[in-house]
Amino acid sequence: MVVISSHMSYRLHWRDMAWKEVLSSAGLSAIEYLMPDLAADMDPTRALAGIHGVELFSEGTDSDKHMRRLDVFFDVPMSDGKNGNVALFVEQQHEKDADFTLRMFETYIRLRERRRLRTTGFAIYTGGSPDVNTYFESCYGFEVSVKFRTYHLPSKRADELRADKRPFGRVMLAGRLSLEAGEDTELREKYAWEILTTTNEQDYDKEKRLFILDFSRRIFQLSDPQINQKLKEAYKMQTLPLHEYSQQIKLEIAREEGIEEGMEKGMEKGMEKAARSMLARGTSLQEVSETLGLPVDRLQNLKPH
């Protein structure tokens, strides 16, 4: 068993939340992208499984614990049959470099002590210092040096990330472009459209497309009222949970079915067909009415008996 976790401030910054969510939902893709040597040693016949609520730092002040909470773990099955831990930390640009390296070291120690298993770590770092990958401490001849992998996002060229078509490469590109855009609304819109369109051009499965676009929606803050409404609606349609359909998609399906059967009469048949299908799946009369624009009393006659 290998464990991967996401290290965040308990009082999450919006960037932290975006990274936390994508690492939680796309742990395997993150490992394949960031730690290909680990991915090569994984057992492909066994699934990555999430474990939530692990707390390594139970002592200290509240603020101390808030900054050191590991709230997402994944069991990663290894092909060699041995056990180990992988701790994957995400650090944002508003954190101090010295605190970051110290936390990496302390978390490694706690994780190693708690689990008694092989332990490693990785960081996605968005701060200003490009060489934040080592913690060193010396006390009267006793020296400790810990080196860990760091992916320093600001030093990566956007063109190089654009050329990388791997699913998690799209996530990294979105993260890199969000740093470049900053608070510039026009740039945020431009880059959000880029991620949306280029992702839709790729032959990704639904799960990969979902985590890419959902991360992009979060990292570019598309909930901001200044962002173009059309852009927000496009992302909303693309990033709903896989088991759901957006109201816009349902309406388009109904219209297409109607067009196929011919003009207005065909449209009515298509709408009724879509309504029957939605009602059979348990959708409420009110929701079907609002989605398709059909009156509730008419829908009553379409309900399955």
Can you describe what's shown?
The chain is of the alpha/beta class and 305 residues long. It folds into 2 domains: 2-234, no CATH class; 247-300, no CATH class. The protein is 51% helix and 17% strand. The strands form 3 sheets. A 3-stranded antiparallel β-sheet has the order 1-3-2, covered by helices on one side. A hairpin with a 2-residue loop joins strand 6 (134-139) and strand 7. Helix 9 runs antiparallel to helix 10 (229-238). The longest helix has 19 residues, at 97-115. The relative contact order is 0.09. Residues 1-12 and 60-70 have low confidence and may be disordered.
As for the number of domains, it is 2
Cα separation of the termini:
50 Å
Number of helix segments? 14
Strand order of the largest sheet: 1-3-2
The tally of strands reads 8
The radius of gyration is: 24 Å
Give a topology summary.
Elements: E1 2-8, H1 14-25, H2 27-34, H3 36-40, E2 49-52, H4 62-66, E3 69-76, E4 84-91, H5 97-115, E5 118-125, E6 134-139, E7 142-147, E8 149-152, H6 158-163, H7 167-181, H8 185-201, H9 206-219, H10 229-238, H11 247-261, H12 263-280, H13 285-292, H14 296-300
Parallel strand pairs: 4-5, 5-8
Antiparallel strand pairs: 1-3, 2-3, 6-7
